[in-house]
Amino acid sequence: MALSLSWKVFALFPTNCCSLFLRAVRSSGLPSFPWGHCPWRGAGSILDPEMKAFLEENTEVTSSGSLTPEIQLRLLTSRCKFWWEKADLWPYSDPYWAIYWPGGQALSRYLLDNPDIVRGKSVLDLGSGCGATAIAAKMSGASRILANDIDPIAGMAITLNCELNQLNPFPILTKNILDLEQDKWDLVVLGDMFYDEDLADSLHRWLKKCFWTHTTQILIGDPGRPQFSGHSIQNQLHKVVEYSLPEPTRQENNGLTTSTVWHFQP
Ligand SMILES: C[S@@+](CC[C@H](N)C(=O)[O-])C[C@H]1O[C@@H](n2cnc3c(N)ncnc32)[C@H](O)[C@@H]1O
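That is the input. Now the predicted structure with S-adenosylmethionine docked in place:
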């Protein structure tokens, strides 16, 4: 099957393709997003109608091909035109939120199968992307949820994905919290966040502080990315469960075959 190189490469190697996408955004001459100065998107907030229409037109609702068929998501699939078209025609920032990454899939599967981990707990989904892991936490009875992602469009996609799953939207924060004072959370979950070395270092520092300050439980989902497997965080991890990835996820992720949930205990 012929595939649009730019999107597929982005899906396979997100770090390498960041520059490609950033260049595309810059060369488009677009200003930053109109909602960029309003990082808090409270529960049930109203989506900008134009943006909602854009997202609905350029994504497909799907629940197949992942580890969690019980969660429906709007994603970029081979039936969407931007799967085929050149990436520089995409007018916004890199759409990490349009892919359900293997690390997030493993975490979500684990929370759905083990609701006791989250029931009645406060949960932060850091780097939430499409919001699937936060949705899994909500479905499993978490009492308080915050989905955090630096991409404002991820915030919109998460709101749409909550609606798709007949859930009342939970709070979504679209700003970088890694340099801010930490709130207390019972559980922090991170799906596929260790794809860049500098980000991995920042996350490691932040997670250690979170653990020592608030005795927060921390779960990380990762499919064996080198920035994770080769990081010093490895000495502070305990394997919780490993999942075999479904065939469509394997194909979209350059042959990765498994994804693992790790417990971080510094
Ligand atoms: C590879 S995606 C994983 C998304 C989701 N957790 C999943 O597994 O499907 C990484 C996400 O982290 C977000 N991200 C990157 N740096 C971040 C930061 N400092 N704080 C919050 N989110 C960040 C990106 O915008 C992106 O949505």
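The first strand starts at residue 40 and ends at 41.
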